[in-house]
């Protein structure tokens, strides 16, 4: 299991959220990280590697509920971990 700290606006603090462990980068084998991307109206979590590989999760309106943020974080992790897998077998 991995963990990431995300903003909990209801309690005005950061909270730790558990998620699947991130798989190594499929391009370079490096260790990815999770970033919170924010623009004027939306935000999302993106899994990134220093080599430039990335996988964004779902966009949500700024200041969504904590549970919506958790769902978005999980979507980015799941997309990253599934990239390059055969959907029938779950293998590369």
UniProtKB/TrEMBL annotation:
One Pfam family per UniProt: Lar_restr_allev
Protein name in the entry: Restriction endonuclease
Organism annotation: Bifidobacterium longum subsp. longum
